[in-house]
């Protein structure tokens, strides 16, 4: 299975999913004009990954901001991660948020509650990625 790499910018998050290592990264901002067009290939890739996941999958999510339509698709991603967990495979999501952003902390807690995917929330002083 091929690695999925989408380089982010001011409107799209970086998506870096490595099926060999089982380390997935989502970071940046998510403000695509057509959210379904952007996230559909990601959801399809995860569907393929589910058939033969790595022994341990770690998902690191560091989103500075995302719009309402992105929120729905991010939740869909987490639900697919939950399916990996339910099938007996190890998966864990690390949700990072800046310490001065309680809204993103609350959003992570909500995603965890709704999706049921194993998740830890981590406060950071500020994100280290650079948006271009």
Architecture blueprint of SSEs:
Blueprint: E1 4-6, E2 14-18, E3 23-30, H1 35-50, E4 56-66, H2 68-86, E5 90-98, H3 102-115, E6 119-124
Parallel strand pairs: 3-4, 4-5, 5-6
Antiparallel strand pairs: 1-2, 2-3
Helix pairs in contact: 1-2, 2-3
Helix- and strand-based class?
Answer: alpha/beta
Overall geometric form: globular
Order of helices and strands: EEEHEHEHE
User: Mean pLDDT across all residues, rounded?
Assistant: 96
Main beta-sheet strand count, sense and barrel state: 6 strands, mixed
Q: How many strands appear in the DSSP assignment?
A: 6
Helical fraction: 25-40%
Distance from first to last alpha carbon: 29 Å
Residue runs with pLDDT of under 50 for 5 or more positions: none
- β-strand percent reads 25-35%
- What is the overall number of helices? 3
Q: Radius of gyration in whole Å, from Cα?
A: 14 Å
Can you list the strand order of the major beta sheet?
Answer: 1-2-3-4-5-6
Can you characterise this structure?
This protein is an alpha/beta fold. It contains 3 helices and 6 strands. A hairpin with a 4-residue loop joins β2 (14-18) and β3. α1 packs parallel to α2 and α2 (68-86) crosses α3.
């Amino acid at each position: 299975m091929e690695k999925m790499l989408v380089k982010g910018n001011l409107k799209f998050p970086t998506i870096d999913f490595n099926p060999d290592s089982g380390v997935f990264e989502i970071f940046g901002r998510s403000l695509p004009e057509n959210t379904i067009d952007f996230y559909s290939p990601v959801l399809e890739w995860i569907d393929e990954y589910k058939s033969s996941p790595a022994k341990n999958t770690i998902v690191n999510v560091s989103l500075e901001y995302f719009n309402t339509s992105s929120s729905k698709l991010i939740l869909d991603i987490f639900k697919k991660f939950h399916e990996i967990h339910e099938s007996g495979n190890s998966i864990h999501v690390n949700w990072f948020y800046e310490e001065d952003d309680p809204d993103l902390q609350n959003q992570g807690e909500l995603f965890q509650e709704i999706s049921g995917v194993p998740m830890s929330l981590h406060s950071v002083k500020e994100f280290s990625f650079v948006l271009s």
